[in-house]
Amino acid sequence: MDASATYLGSDERRRMINLEQTRIEIADHVLLRPVEGTGVMLDLDTERYVGLDETALRMVQTAADSANLAATVTTLTEIYDADASLIETDLVALVSDLGDRGLIKLVTVSES
Questions:
Q1: In this structure, is residue 46 part of a structural domain?
Q2: Can you list the positions of beta strands (E) in the chain?
Q3: Range of the domain at 104
Q4: pLDDT (tens digit, 9 = 90+) per residue, 29-88?
Q5: Separation between Cα atoms, residue 107 and residue 25, nearest integer Å
Q6: Does some domain include residue 49?
Q7: pTM above 0.70, yes or no
Protein backbone atom coordinates (compact mmCIF):
# COMPACT_ATOMS: atom_id res chain seq x y z
CA MET A 1 0.00 0.00 0.00
CA ASP A 2 1.35 3.38 -1.01
CA ALA A 3 0.18 6.52 0.79
CA SER A 4 0.80 10.23 0.37
CA ALA A 5 -0.61 13.18 2.30
CA THR A 6 -3.00 15.49 0.50
CA TYR A 7 -3.41 19.10 1.55
CA LEU A 8 -6.41 20.91 0.06
CA GLY A 9 -8.44 23.95 1.12
CA SER A 10 -11.67 23.17 2.99
CA ASP A 11 -14.18 23.77 0.16
CA GLU A 12 -11.94 21.99 -2.32
CA ARG A 13 -11.34 19.17 0.15
CA ARG A 14 -15.05 18.59 0.70
CA ARG A 15 -15.57 18.22 -3.05
CA MET A 16 -12.47 16.09 -3.61
CA ILE A 17 -12.57 13.49 -0.82
CA ASN A 18 -12.94 9.98 -2.19
CA LEU A 19 -14.06 7.97 0.83
CA GLU A 20 -12.74 4.70 -0.60
CA GLN A 21 -9.27 6.13 -1.22
CA THR A 22 -8.81 8.40 1.79
CA ARG A 23 -7.91 7.73 5.40
CA ILE A 24 -6.76 10.01 8.19
CA GLU A 25 -3.70 10.15 10.38
CA ILE A 26 -3.41 12.22 13.51
CA ALA A 27 -0.58 14.68 12.85
CA ASP A 28 2.72 13.83 14.57
CA HIS A 29 2.64 17.07 16.57
CA VAL A 30 -0.88 16.45 17.92
CA LEU A 31 -2.08 14.59 20.99
CA LEU A 32 -5.59 13.15 21.01
CA ARG A 33 -6.87 12.47 24.52
CA PRO A 34 -10.25 11.35 25.78
CA VAL A 35 -11.41 13.42 28.75
CA GLU A 36 -14.53 12.34 30.69
CA GLY A 37 -16.56 11.29 27.65
CA THR A 38 -15.27 14.08 25.45
CA GLY A 39 -11.89 14.63 23.82
CA VAL A 40 -9.13 17.13 23.26
CA MET A 41 -6.77 17.48 20.33
CA LEU A 42 -3.70 19.45 21.41
CA ASP A 43 -1.31 20.90 18.83
CA LEU A 44 2.06 20.72 20.58
CA ASP A 45 3.61 23.21 18.13
CA THR A 46 1.11 26.02 18.70
CA GLU A 47 -0.19 24.95 22.12
CA ARG A 48 -3.72 25.39 20.79
CA TYR A 49 -6.37 22.78 21.35
CA VAL A 50 -9.73 21.74 19.96
CA GLY A 51 -12.39 20.23 22.18
CA LEU A 52 -14.38 17.34 20.76
CA ASP A 53 -17.79 16.25 21.97
CA GLU A 54 -18.45 12.53 22.47
CA THR A 55 -19.64 12.03 18.88
CA ALA A 56 -16.74 13.90 17.28
CA LEU A 57 -14.27 11.98 19.45
CA ARG A 58 -15.81 8.66 18.36
CA MET A 59 -15.69 9.79 14.71
CA VAL A 60 -12.01 10.76 14.89
CA GLN A 61 -10.99 7.61 16.76
CA THR A 62 -12.92 5.39 14.35
CA ALA A 63 -11.50 7.17 11.31
CA ALA A 64 -7.94 6.91 12.66
CA ASP A 65 -8.41 3.15 13.13
CA SER A 66 -10.11 2.50 9.77
CA ALA A 67 -8.55 1.51 6.47
CA ASN A 68 -10.42 4.34 4.73
CA LEU A 69 -13.23 6.82 5.32
CA ALA A 70 -15.79 4.56 3.62
CA ALA A 71 -15.12 1.94 6.31
CA THR A 72 -15.47 4.68 8.90
CA VAL A 73 -18.91 5.63 7.55
CA THR A 74 -20.00 1.97 7.64
CA THR A 75 -18.83 1.52 11.24
CA LEU A 76 -20.38 4.78 12.45
CA THR A 77 -23.66 3.99 10.67
CA GLU A 78 -23.83 0.74 12.63
CA ILE A 79 -22.86 2.38 15.94
CA TYR A 80 -25.36 5.23 15.68
CA ASP A 81 -28.05 3.46 13.63
CA ALA A 82 -28.14 6.55 11.42
CA ASP A 83 -28.45 7.29 7.72
CA ALA A 84 -25.11 6.76 5.95
CA SER A 85 -25.43 9.98 3.93
CA LEU A 86 -25.81 12.01 7.13
CA ILE A 87 -22.80 10.28 8.71
CA GLU A 88 -20.78 10.89 5.53
CA THR A 89 -21.67 14.59 5.45
CA ASP A 90 -20.77 15.07 9.12
CA LEU A 91 -17.55 13.04 8.82
CA VAL A 92 -16.32 14.95 5.76
CA ALA A 93 -17.08 18.27 7.47
CA LEU A 94 -15.23 17.18 10.64
CA VAL A 95 -12.12 15.83 8.91
CA SER A 96 -12.04 18.87 6.60
CA ASP A 97 -12.10 21.21 9.60
CA LEU A 98 -9.46 19.25 11.52
CA GLY A 99 -7.33 19.05 8.38
CA ASP A 100 -7.57 22.82 7.89
CA ARG A 101 -6.34 23.24 11.47
CA GLY A 102 -3.38 20.93 10.81
CA LEU A 103 -4.52 18.42 13.42
CA ILE A 104 -4.95 15.51 11.01
CA LYS A 105 -3.61 14.55 7.60
CA LEU A 106 -5.85 13.21 4.88
CA VAL A 107 -3.91 10.40 3.29
CA THR A 108 -4.63 9.03 -0.15
CA VAL A 109 -4.59 5.25 -0.13
CA SER A 110 -3.82 3.35 -3.30
CA GLU A 111 -3.28 -0.35 -3.77
CA SER A 112 0.01 -1.38 -5.33
A1: no
A2: 2-6, 22-26, 30-35, 38-43, 48-52, 104-110
A3: 2-26+54-110
A4: 999 999 999 999 999 999 999 999 999 999 999 999 999 999 999 999 999 999 999 999
A5: 7
A6: no
A7: yes
